[in-house]
Amino acid sequence: RLARLAAHLQDPRKVAAFQRLCGVEGPSGWAGAEQRGPVANGGPAGGQAHPTGNGAVPGAAGTPRRWRRRPRRNSLTEEEDGSQEFATRSRFLYYLFSLGTELGNELFYILFFPFCIWNVDAWLGRRLIIIWVWVMYLGQCTKDVIRWPRPASPPVVKLEVFYNSEYSMPSTHAMSGTAIPLALLLLSYGRWQYPLMFGLILAFCWCSLVCCSRIYMGMHSILDVIAGFLYAILILVVFHPVVDLIDNFNLTYKYAPLIIISLHLALGIFSFTLDTWSTSRGDTAQILGCGAGVACGSHVNYILGLQLDPPPHSLPLSLSSLTVTVFGKAILRLLIGVIILLLTKVAMKKATIPLACQIFRIPHDDVRRARQRMEVELPYRYITYGMVGFSLMM
Question: Which residue ranges traverse the bilayer (predicted)?
């Protein structure tokens, strides 16, 4: 019975039905397309995109105005699957679910974590990053062990193919979209004064938006999303009780930076056993590098006496002191800081990629192909995002 339920939830036709419900359509006639043979990682059979789409909503009168778009793609891949145009009848839902999927992408992380650390509570931000690193690392590793493909297209319309080279189970977007708001609630409630119902509603809306967005985008089955949600909760149950110990170790232990760097490198090397290249390897190295940089930066802050944690007698903290002036300063601090982080990222990228190519004697006339080589990708990601994480804390 469980196997039948799992097969039902993994059916790509359920994803296509949700997309049609939200007004997503592929090219005319896709609803009647027959799938031709096996599908590799969510791509169309035979490697060719079918000239068809999800069709109109049954019972719809006339031809509603349609808005045509092309999927967001990854510059490192040469995938053609899912590159067909799609149409949507609701711009609101398109932008809403695009926002939801961005809550699990790099742009959100590079805004959210700095804002939390610089303007809200460094204590809270460090712990969120610890949980985020473990959730994302375990999620990426599990994908590469299970190796389930993305939902078949057709019948699914791919609104995003940025991560299409990765495997599907579990959804790491669903994992981060579950773990971050729940961890934020668990860590902040009692430390900050706010109504519990507000935190619960925020966590529910955040999690629901991210999870539904991955089905809407055609990147995950319902089973992928449910598994990601439950997996994130399991990881939270295990790591939340020890997150204080991990953070205190990062801050106070004399040899913490050496152990942190060694551990994150070992975790990365252990997990990079892919049969083919995908964005998963670079993303995992990026997450581990960022986590190591933040932990080492926190240690240096503590040693230099620059720790920004509020004293215990000032707890619980209150949001009542928020004014227009305070908010303006927070936004200005965020903008200036993020610009510095982005400049750090660009500078380290410019330095590490040619250096790695030179050391390992890899031609770098085609940067895209060079970045797909493990000898280039791992040092580039580790060093670049390690420095970004370190700069975040300084």
Answer: 92-112, 196-216, 223-243, 255-274, 286-304, 324-343
